[in-house]
Sequence to fold (353 residues):
Amino acid sequence: MLILMNVNATDDQTQAVCKRVEELGFRPHPLPGATRCAIGITGNQGAVEADPLSQLPGVAEVIAVSKPYKLVSRDMKPEDTVVRFEGRDATIGGVEVALMAGPCGVESRDQLFRAAEAVAESGARFLRGGAFKPRTSPYAFQGMGEKGLEIMAEAREAFGLLVVTEAICHESLALVDQYADMIQIGARNMQNFALLKLAGRSRRPVLLKRGMSATLDELLMAAEYIMSEGNYNVVLCERGIRTFADHTRNTLDVGIVPAVKKLTHLPIIIDPSHAAGKRDKVVPLARAGVAVGADGVIVEVHCDPDHALSDGPQSLYPGQFAAMVENLRGIAQLVGRTMYDPKCKPVTAAVAR
Ligand code: PEP
Ligand code: MN
Fold:
């Protein structure tokens, strides 16, 4: 069920409705919109009786939600969610196409710093890099763990980047929450419901990657798990799905972008690296992502990909990344979006003097 407040409803009225929802034994989720506030109700097994709620002061309408997902739905919030980061200009879901880049995994301070410097110079606002790696083989590099997070946090300070990194279990999520700006839930954990609930209790935005065989509904329900715990800053990510095609590692489902935009207010970004699997196909897929209306791209970049401990073949060299960004900038403009350009930073008073 969804409660729409009047355009001129006061905060006190909204709070009173939330209190009443709690008294009925449910959980209220107030989501302020551009014109009015909507309150989603979760925790109910069957239909909630509308009458006691529709009579409360400030309530415009009580709507039964027939879809399995509520909080992620556009019915709940017609305008796009823009994810913001305290004290920073970077956003996801606004007019700017978000750019996230870095190696697949953190391998050493030197390796991460070289990649971070390069991607920051090209205009990335977010540094990616796994400290906890979900690998197919238990004998493959599993990530540096907390040490890797420390290095990521150091790079954030050194290059002014926001850090996005993956959590694979309860313990790693607690650590990622401590060190990073954004928690990544990987494709393999998209339906790890216990982990999703835990991410929902964090105050950090969550990057939720689509499972390799997940339908759109399953992806949205996974996002609903996070939001139902009170964390409304969820960004979806299409990273390619398993199909019969073997010319790419996974098949980038660009069609999911307009489909997502129709059903949900949440932003969606594209990961062309894990879709392509090979460096030469990353840039064309990234272009397709921006052209189709994705809110950002996340790309793997490594200064020495031949010696990378994971996903070297799909990692771009810094030069290729820089060229790609210039390319994407043109496409972004064509679709009415912008991309951050570090060369156009506002001149500060100190520099101007
Ligand atoms: C990654 O981002 O390095 C990763 C493991 O991605 P995915 O979960 O999409 O496979
Ligand atoms: Mn990877």
User: Anything to note?
Assistant: The pocket of manganese (II) ion (ligand 2) is lined by residues 104, 274, 300, 310-311 (CB under 6 Å). The CA atoms of residues 243 and 251 lie 6 Å apart.
